[in-house]
Write a structure and sequence with these properties.
By secondary structure, the chain is mostly beta strands. The chain is built from no helices and eight strands. The chain has one domain. The chain is flat, with a radius of gyration of 12 Å.
Amino acid sequence: MATYTCPKCNMSVVTTCGHCSADLVDDVLVLDSGAEVRIAQCPDGHGKIKSPLCCGSDMACAV
């Protein structure tokens, strides 16, 4: 399972797709401005979300 962990407090969450139960995949979305946004997306194409936040920053995924 995709596990996101906060680098500051060590809190963690497990992410799966609510539609198909597949583990979400850590990725980066590049905006038109060139800015990068960390995301988690379904490998089966059911969508993507902004990566989880904790303590004011993106949580890291070791997958």
